[in-house]
Write a structure and sequence with these properties.
10 helices, globular
């Protein structure tokens, strides 16, 4: 839950800093809070506890979590539409190489593009079983390196310019 709360806080801040409207910021915050809820399914438990990198089969299974999360979120009628779409597509890469649908650029909902950055930043700034947390300088270097490939370049620019986001991290 700590991960989801941090992602929601960072995603909402990034969305506000980027100038998105209040309703969309609220939807992004809700979607970010719920983006990994599908991982409650038992088949993910051994993968989440694994102390090393996932093999190809395990990685393929883990990549189904965004769809499973969207299915769960969609059981709440008020969350169907933009919130469910953001949850479903939060692992789509800006260049189309992500999953589950291989969407690219503007075809990826803006909420999902925001969550992608917030999720990745939280993962990089948190200790993992296989590596220590990265510092802010390394995080910004990685965002810039993958801008236009994994991340929306306009959102990366907003991230880089925001003192508010720097304060959150």
């Amino acid at each position: 839950s700590g991960h989801s709360q941090r992602v929601a806080k960072l995603a909402a801040a990034l969305a506000r800093q980027h100038g998105l409207g209040a309703k969309l910021v609220e939807q992004i915050e809700k979607a970010a809070l719920l983006h990994d809820v599908g991982k409650i399914h038992e088949e993910y438990a051994p993968l989440l506890r694994k102390g090393s990198k996932l093999d190809a089969t395990e990685k393929a299974l883990m990549q189904t979590h965004s769809m499973r999360s969207a299915e769960l979120v969609g059981t709440i009628s008020a969350f169907r539409g933009p919130i469910t779409d953001a949850v479903r597509h939060h692992h789509e890469n800006f260049d189309g190489s992500g999953y589950p649908s291989g969407l690219a650029g503007a075809a990826i909902p803006i909420a999902a593009r925001v969550i992608m950055i917030a999720d990745t930043v939280d993962a990089m700034t948190t200790d993992r079983p296989y590596r220590k947390a990265l510092g802010f300088a390394k995080v910004t270097q990685e965002l810039q390196k993958f801008s236009g490939r994994q991340f929306d370049p306009q959102l990366v620019a907003t991230f880089m310019q925001s003192a508010t986001i720097r304060g959150i991290i």
